[in-house]
Amino acid sequence: MTSERFDLPQGTLDLLILKVLSLGPQHGWGVSQRLRQVSRESLQVPQGSLYPALYRLERRGWIKARWGLTPENRHGRFYELTARGRTQLKTEESAWERLVASVGLVLGTEG
Amino acid sequence: MMWRDFLSDIGYRMRVLFRRDSAERDMTAELEFHLSAETERLQRKGLAPVEARRQARLAFGDLEAVKEAARDARGVTAAEDFGRDLKHAVRLTRRQPGLAAVVVLSLALGLGATLTVFNLTWNVLFAPLPLPHPEELVSAWRWNNDGRDNVFTWAEIEALRHGATGVELAAMRGASAVAVTIGERREFINLTFVDGNFFPVIGVKPREGRLVSPRDDSDAAPVVVLSEDFARSLFPADSMVAGRTVNIRGAFFTIIGVTPRSFRGLSYPGSFTAAIPIGSSALLRGSGAGRDNRGLPYGDGDPRPATQAAFQLVGRVSADFEAARNAMEAAFERCCAAVSGGQRARLEMTDIRRGIAGGKGDNRREIRGTLGMIMAGMGLVLVVVCCNVAGLLLVRSSARQREIAVRLSLGASRARLVRQLVLESVPMALAGTLGGMMLAVWLTGAFTRALPGDWDYLRPMVEFHANSTLLLTTVALALGCTLAFAVYPALRATARPLAPSLRMDARASRTRRQGAVARWVIVAQVAVAVVIVTMTGLLSATLANVTRESSGVASDHMLLAGLGTRSTVYEAEGVLPLAEQIARSVELVPGVRAVTYATLVPLYGGSNYAIYVKVPGLAAAPDREPMSRVVVARPGYFATAGMHLVAGREPTELEATAGSAVVVSEAFVSRYLRGREPLGTSFELAMDEERAYRAVQIVGVSRDGRYDSLKERPQPYIYIGAGGGVGEWRSLQLVVRTTGDAMALAPAVLNALEAAAPGIEVRRVRDMETQRDWSTTIERFIARLAMFASLMALVLSAIGLYGVVAWEVTRRTSEIGVRLALGARARMILWLVSRETLLVLGGGVVLGAVLAYGAAGALRSQFFGVGPHDPFATVAAVTALALVGLVASVLPARRATRIDPKTALSAD
């Protein structure tokens, strides 16, 4: 298992956070769980590094935060996508796809 | 999109900044929530609570580092940290008052001294005229084959006024020695004639009343404007002088206003006493026609003679400078360029923002070098200050090595620590700057008050003006110096590998590399101080040598007065026919021992006139005929003036009347007689333009006199009696030998003068001692400034050394405690802590001596009677530095020997 883990390429953490949040409001821990599950534990993201990224996105106005109650009735800080965040996600998704496609073409393993 | 990003960013930052604490709480709460949620998840997977928590933290990463990164991401850390660091800095400064005091004192002294010298220098060399928008002021010069001049005829001025656009023109003209009478009192002043545009164009605001208007000029109104100083000297008791009347050359004028003290006319260094309208100059009458500064007549006629080039032109450019210049030059080309003989003249419009240059007293060119040298010296002093500050900060940061290492290992970023270390010096820099400014204001005041009497004109110029450029520069300099020198120690301190600093024995772990920079700092500042002190020694020796130099006359009990006949009733025949009569009546004044006169007196001045001589046996080069200066003197002049005769005697009355016998100076003998016996030798001289030679015989040889300056090389002089056709002389210096205080006799002598020759012009009444003092003003000024710079350099070096050794002792307290506990003797401890400093001091002194050798050679021309490599100055400087350095480093080192081992070991 360990050998299949890899580090996140620079800048992709923002895209992943936006993607996770596009499914609905989530707190920081929730985002980290989601990333872990969806990537089937193969993404090596120290959980702590999530927070600077979240603050950065908040500062850019792509996500916004509010305190709310979790299903376990605890206070958590929930993040949700703003309208601009949604636009940004689309832009970044298509940019990512183009990048993957281009890299694939170069490597000759497309499809 | 961009601007929306920007707005969002700003809004977020503002929100966070204003709710900083709540933002910080939010973050802590959020991270805690994450950790407990993760712990719970792991517990649900079956881990024990403690292990679950441990795993959760492991997965999370370094909590403090995350917080720091999160703060950075929030984008407010810089502002927040700044405030926190500043508070910390103030607290720290208060905790180490000794170090702070040393730094602040160094900065204040260095900056105060530098600011003072820079302010003086700037005001003397570069200050603009104290008028609104001086950069718009211009004057004009006319160039033709003979060179240039700056006077124009009225017709030319009118033509230029109509022909040139973009510049407003005014005209002026000056006359010297114009008699002004108020009641019994009579003064000779410099009078300015101005047209109605003059004051409006240059923009002087009256201090009282109003200034000359165009209407005054066209009406030829009998009105006069006085300077504040002159008005105050005429009417000391009156607060208002406008409306009062003065008599100027026989005509009554009403005072309409007073100009402010700062107004000194348009020339550099300038002086202004009084002004009347040009139109009113025709009112001036009385004793004969007046002559202006250029010898052109005025008064009793047409005030604006169309063909007489008498007026200077000043103007204010209202629009583009280049366009105005072209317009002026083109207008001149059209109206006035034609000169007789087909030549053409050219007009040059010049900027006079720093005053009309090149006039009498414009010594900016001569003193630029000296002032530059002093400024360079002060620059070096400032370097010493920076060295001190850097050295102290370096010592401090190495003393805090452990604290820094701990914080670095706890995850503080290096940039953050450097920022904090640098910020810690800000309160000290600010306090030092403030102190420096106050010191500068005080020093400038003291300096201005100490200016000798003949430097009066400088006084208003060098007063401390709150010049924003200068102040800003200084503040920038101080902060720059401190911050720049704080950055290096901070970088050094944070760059060290952590392990050795963290070990408990950090107190003993002082690497040699660490002290290297601090040592070089001391070497540099000691070297600088040696250079400055050596220069001061040479300049002081120069002053002493100049002061010792003989002027040629005995200066005690000697009163001098300058007599002039220009624009008086005696103008036609000159002063010599009156001389005997005047001398006889002054001789009758009680307290007068002897009276004599001469056309030129050493250091006091007079008419300096050179004539051609033909000396038998002296082969004259065809293009360089031998010349000598000539002094017409009363028989008995040498005895009364105390001018020593090295051979022979003075001419008798008879010989003086005949003009057949002369006394020559030693320089004359050595230059023209070449070892021949001078006494009895005859030679020929020509006193007039036509070169009519006549024979005279040498009856005496006098010691050389120094006429312009005590430093001058003696020149050949001939002293001759008034008879036998020596021509007309317009000025004569009366020499009165008194029994008591010379100046006390001045009023009585003046009365006698007035009785003997009513209406004669009397100027510069003073005693010879004062005159002699004045002649060394520049040397004294320079020596004093150099002393001042030396003192600063010595004090600052001492402070630096003291500070570094004191810190060394503090830092090594426990080591010293151990040594003392192990039985080390006091002397060994003393040697231990001061050894390096003394070595470094020695290095600095040697380096300084080498640098001083080079510097003195480069400044050779500034010294008099002392070689640039005079060993005395170097030895004195080296001794002074060694002594000061020794005391400054041994005093704090003695403290180390009194350390109590028990206290020292339990510390830290």
Describe this structure in words.
The complex is a heterodimer of chains A (111) and B (908). With 111 residues, chain A is α+β, with helices and mostly antiparallel strands. In chain A, the strands form two sheets. In chain A, strands 2-5-4 form a three-stranded antiparallel sheet. A two-stranded parallel sheet of chain A has the order 1-3. Chain A is globular. Chain A has helices at 12-22, 28-38, 50-60, 83-107, and strands at 6-7, 26-27, 43-44, 63-69, 75-81. Chain A contains four helices and five strands. In chain A, helix 1 (12-22) crosses helix 4 (83-107). In chain A, a hairpin with a 5-residue loop joins strand 4 and strand 5 (75-81). Chain B is of the alpha+beta class. In chain B, 52% of the residues lie in helices and 17% in strands. Chain B has 30 helices and 26 strands. Chain B has a six-stranded mixed β-barrel. Chain B has a six-stranded mixed beta barrel with strand order 18-19-24-21-23-22. In chain B, strands 15-25-14-26 form a four-stranded antiparallel sheet. In chain B, helix 12 runs antiparallel to helix 19 (512-548) and helix 15 runs antiparallel to helix 17. The two termini of chain B are 58 Å apart. Residues 501-513 of chain B have low confidence and may be disordered. The interface between A and B is medium-sized, with 23 and 29 residues.
Q: Strand-and-helix sequence of chain A, N→C?
A: EHEHEHEEH
Query: For the largest interface in this structure, which chains are involved and how many residues does each contribute?
Result: A-B, 23 and 29 residues
N-C termini distance of chain B: 58 Å
The fraction of residues in strands of chain A falls at 15-25%
